[in-house]
Structure formats: structure tokens, C-alpha cells
Design goal:
The chain is built from 18 helices and 25 strands. With 502 residues, the chain is an alpha/beta fold. The protein has three domains: 5-239, Rossmann fold (3-Layer(aba) Sandwich); 246-330 and 415-502, 3-Layer(aba) Sandwich (Rossmann fold); 337-412, no CATH class.
Length: 502
């Protein structure tokens, strides 16, 4: 570890109602080093970085910056001390431009007037530094998910933070953008900036981290030096057991076509795409960010209406004008952004579970709370959802448990076609395995599964067939097997090879 300690946490303890979130946790960050903070969802990582950023105050323990004890009561205290947090959940104002979001609260001014020209030039500089091709004047509401993440990174950099905490910074970035992020981290370290790096992508840890601290159930359970950053060792320490395979092995025999789309088009985002989803199979759709994958499944779910094309379920033509039309016939979508589109964060997890199932739990306009509670309780047990109680807010759950709540509400609908858009984004390796097992069980039960994923190992480890898209077009369809490689998929995704159909 670097000799000069920028950040020290000693004996940090934090409790919430029914949850002992942090149990006497120690953490150290040196000048010019990158420390990975690892652990399953619910291990306490998010709570710890919120303590680092002043969003939570520890019940006991000491926090020091440059050797000086801190007693922050709000996030701005941490910012003034040189600690910037890039949270996994975006903290942007949709109606403001990218430049305005970057400088929000620290605008360059003369007599109360913001110097927009200077603001724009400085934003251009920081965008160039991180390889972001973003017009500073573009409203954040019009940016892609990946572009919003880059704006968050830029916000931290313009504040000249000496301590930078990155919570899943690459979760929605393309391979090229991730490589640019790595170079940026190298540059920041050379300037003496300390970086706390939280990620479930273990290959990233091997690339960026100088060492790692592992948490489990709110406690620090291990420390790994650079030489000890071995994938299997990290996984075993995180989950507390050996995990022989990251992907559960299943042999499936797909049946008849359940869902069929013919020549779907939607502006420039989806161009003449056709696909079949068979009973008992997992169909993966992959490609780079902006390939049109999410836009395609939004058409299948009725969230958008195609300009052209036909959608059929079990041979019957569908007219999908809104998501409720799709839900009614048994097509359900686990969205990429579960926080904004999959859950109502301000409602309890029980209410979130009940929302798409009100017709089942209602009688003459009255909701049968007992029936709703019994049903949800059964899924809490089946999916091993970690909660403090049924009235716990959805916003308070970890990413993996939020995903399980979304899955539970669609399982209750007894959906025939389940679309998983980036099902394991921001989810730890242990929770991933559980999601994979459920996807396999659903396929074995004859459901049709569509899985969108940017993770090529996940695509190869879980799917029966693979569709590769680029700029709204279908570039290839492959039957998965030992001969299919990540290089083949990437070649199709970037358009180096011609379309092929297995």
C-alpha cells in the first residue's frame, strides 16, 4: 500500500432498522493507488461508500482524510474535503445540458452571471480527456445511458478531487469506452489521486486494482494484494464458498416457435429485424451499445410501436400498442434500468410485486392483501430475496434483490415469454448464478427466454442461439456451441464479417 494515506476508515459501524449494514469495517486508500472494494450485493459496499461520501453518517468509528478526522453531515462536506463519489445510480438533472450538469453548483460566474463560454470550453476539455464524444449543450435527458455515465465521471474530475470513488463505472460502457476508462485511471493515479473502484466485473479488477478489500455480510473478510488477485480466489472469498462453474450447465431441447417477429422496423434504431423465440430455449441478443437491442425488445413488449413488421405469439398476430397489451398475452420484460423502469422505488417491495397482478389479487375493487402477501412470501423463499420486511422500500434493496423482486412479479403473471435486458448488470457473481438458475428453470418449463447481454461470456455461457446486432441491423444468427467464440461475436458486432445464419 502507498505510504501516504489519503483516506482511512477505522471501525466503521452502521445500522438501519432490522439491518446491521457495517460491522466495524476498516479501509485504507493510499496516494496514487486504486483499491478495489469487492463483495456480493448486500455485502455493505454501497453503505460504506456512502459513508465515504457523507451521504450516511457512521454510528461509530473514525474517518480520516490526509490524517485529519472528519465529521461530515452531508455530501458537500465530503466534496469540499476532496472526496467525489460516482454512484451507480445517476445523479443528473435531465432538463439541464451536459455542461450545466458537470458544473452544477460550481458554475464560473461574474457578478452572478454564469460564464457559459468558459463553462463550455472546460467541459470540452474534460470530455476529450475521457474520450467522450458529447455535445456540451445536449440535454442530459437526450443522452444515452453510457453518455450519462461519462457525464458523471466528468462531474467528479472538474472538482479536482484527490479521492475518487467509482461505483460500477463501466457497467454501461462499450469495450472502447472501458479501455478509455482504464487509461484515465492510469493517468489519475500518476497524478497522485486515490481511487476506490467497485465492480462486479472481475476481469476489470485484475486490470485496474493495486489491491482489493473484500466484504461479506457487512464485514471486511479479506485483503488481497496485487499478486493475489486471482478470479477463483476472489469469488470464493466473496461468496464464502467455492463456485465450481459461473454458469449452470443445462442441456435443453427447444420446442416449437412461440414468438415470431417479421421485418420489424422503427426509424433508424431497428431496421428490418426478424427473429424467432422457441419454447424451452434462451435466445441471446448481443452487440455494442447503440446496436438496437433494447429498441428491438421494446417493440416486442409494446413500449414502442413499429413502423413496419409483424409480431406473432403461437401463430396469432398481435397488436401491441402499449406494454399492458403485451403483459395481457404473456410477454413480460425485465428492463435494463430496473430502478427507473422496472420498479417504483418509493413503494414497498410488496406493492411493487402486486402492481402488475392487481387483477389476480382484487375482488370487486378491493385488494386481497392476505393473498398478495402469501404469494409474495412464497417468492421471497423461492428466490431467496434478502429483505427486512414486506414493507421495505424497493429503493433500499441491493441490485440483485431488486432484480429478484422484478422477476417475482413476472413469475406471478405466469408469463410465456420473458425478456431479460441485461439481467445481471450491477449484480455480484453469487446473485448472477441464482438468476441464471432461474432462467434455466423457466426454459426447462417451456417458457421462451430472450436475453440481451453485453457480456460475451454470459452470452456464450447461457444461450442456445445468438443474434448479433449492429446499428439497428441483424448481422448474424448463430447456434451456440464450442466452436463459437467471443472473437466471432465481436467481429459481427463491429461489422468486420458479413451476415451469417446458422
Amino acid at each position: 500500500m502507498a505510504e501516504t494515506k489519503l483516506l482511512e476508515l477505522k471501525g466503521i459501524d452502521k445500522r438501519f432498522p432490522g439491518v446491521h449494514a457495517l460491522k466495524s469495517v476498516d479501509f485504507e486508500l493510499g496516494e496514487g493507488e486504486c483499491v478495489a472494494l469487492l463483495g456480493e450485493n448486500g455485502a455493505g459496499k454501497s453503505t460504506l461508500i456512502k459513508v465515504m461520501g457523507g451521504a450516511h453518517q457512521a454510528d461509530s468509528g473514525t474517518l480520516l482524510v490526509n490524517g485529519r478526522e472528519q465529521n461530515w453531515t452531508k455530501p458537500t462536506d465530503a466534496l469540499e474535503a476532496g472526496v467525489a463519489i460516482i454512484y451507480q445510480e445517476f445523479n443528473l438533472v435531465p432538463g439541464l445540458s451536459a455542461a450545466e450538469n458537470v458544473f452544477l453548483g460550481i458554475e464560473p460566474k461574474d457578478f452572478g452571471w454564469v460564464r457559459r463560454g468558459e463553462e463550455k470550453e472546460r467541459v470540452k476539455e474534460v470530455f476529450e480527456r475521457i474520450g467522450a464524444e458529447i455535445n456540451p449543450r445536449t440535454l442530459c435527458d437526450d443522452l444515452t445511458v453510457a453518455e450519462k455515465q461519462l457525464v458523471e465521471i466528468a462531474k467528479a474530475l472538474v472538482r479536482d478531487a484527490r479521492i475518487l470513488v467509482m461505483d460500477e463505472p463501466s457497467a454501461v460502457l462499450t469495450k472502447k469506452e472501458v479501455e478509455q476508462l482504464y487509461l484515465l485511471i492510469d493517468d489519475l493515479k500518476e497524478k497522485g489521486i486515490g481511487i476506490v473502484y467497485v465492480s462486479h466485473r472481475l476481469e476489470e479488477i485484475e486490470r485496474v486494482a493495486d489491491r482489493a478489500i473484500v466484504m461479506r455480510d457487512g464485514a471486511r473478510v479479506g485483503h488481497l494484494s496485487r499478486e493475489e488477485l486471482d478470479r477463483s480466489k476472489i469469488i470464493e472469498m466473496m461468496v464464502g464458498r467455492k463456485l465450481e462453474n459461473e454458469f449452470p450447465q443445462e442441456v435443453r431441447e427447444p420446442g416449437e416457435v412461440r414468438l415470431r417477429a417479421k421485418n420489424l422496423s422503427f426509424g433508424q434504431k431497428v431496421k428490418n429485424v426478424s427473429l424467432d423465440v422457441r419454447a424451452g430455449e434462451i435466445l441471446a441478443i448481443t452487440g455494442l451499445v447503440g446496436a438496437g437491442r433494447t429498441e428491438t425488445v421494446r417493440l416486442l413488449f409494446g413500449a414502442d410501436i413499429p413502423d413496419e413488421g409483424v409480431i406473432e405469439l403461437d401463430g396469432q398476430k398481435l397488436t401491441l400498442r402499449k406494454p399492458s397489451d403485451a403483459i395481457e398475452v404473456g410477454i413480460c420484460l425485465l428492463t435494463e434500468d430496473r430502478k427507473d423502469q422496472g420498479l417504483v422505488l418509493g413503494l414497498s417491495i410488496l406493492e411493487n410485486f402486486g402492481l402488475p397482478n392487481l387483477n389476480k389479487f382484487s375482488n370487486n375493487g378491493w385488494i386481497d392483501r392476505s393473498a398478495e402477501t402469501r404469494s409474495f412470501t412464497s417468492y421471497v423463499e423461492k428466490l431467496q430475496i434478502k429483505i427486512s420486511g414486506h414493507q421495505q422500500l424497493a429503493s433500499q434493496l441491493s441490485g440483485g434483490n431488486q432484480q429478484k423482486v422484478v422477476l417475482a412479479k413476472w413469475l406471478e403473471r405466469n408469463a410465456e415469454i420473458l425478456i431479460f435486458d441485461e439481467p445481471t448488470r450491477g449484480i455480484d457473481v453469487g446473485a448472477k448464478f441464482e438468476i441464471y438458475q432461474w432462467m434455466n428453470q423457466l426454459a426447462q418449463a417451456g417458457k421462451g427466454i430472450v436475453m440481451i447481454s453485453s457480456e460475451l461470456p454470459e452470452v456464450l455461457g447461457m444461450s442456445d442461439r445468438i443474434l448479433v446486432m449492429k446499428e439497428g441491423e441483424l448481422m448474424g444468427e448463430l447456434t451456440n456451441g464450442p466452436e463459437i467464440t467471443q472473437e466471432m461475436l465481436m467481429s459481427l458486432a463491429i461489422g468486420e464479417t458479413k451476415k451469417q445464419v446458422a
